[in-house]
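User: Can you recover a sequence for this backbone? Please restate the input before giving your answer.

Assistant: Of course. Working from this structure:
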């Protein structure tokens, strides 16, 4: 395997690890949003915690409530 192929393999392996970490973090975030909504948090509060608008939070995460 050439040095370039070895570099590519290393980067792709690291990319796979990052993707797995993102999946874990996405799942944790979704669980926290479900818990916040169940506890009575508003979409405004959730949006503020995520650094986005309440409309964006609602549009992106409302399906988490529907899936319950």
């Amino acid at each position: 395997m050439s040095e370039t192929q070895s570099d590519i393999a290393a980067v792709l392996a690291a990319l796979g690890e990052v993707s797995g970490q993102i999946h874990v973090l996405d799942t944790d975030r979704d669980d926290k949003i479900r818990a916040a909504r169940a506890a009575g948090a508003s979409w405004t509060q959730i949006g503020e915690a995520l650094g986005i608008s309440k409309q964006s939070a609602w549009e992106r995460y409302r399906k988490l409530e529907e899936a319950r």
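That completes the design. Residues 22 and 28 are 10 Å apart (CA to CA).
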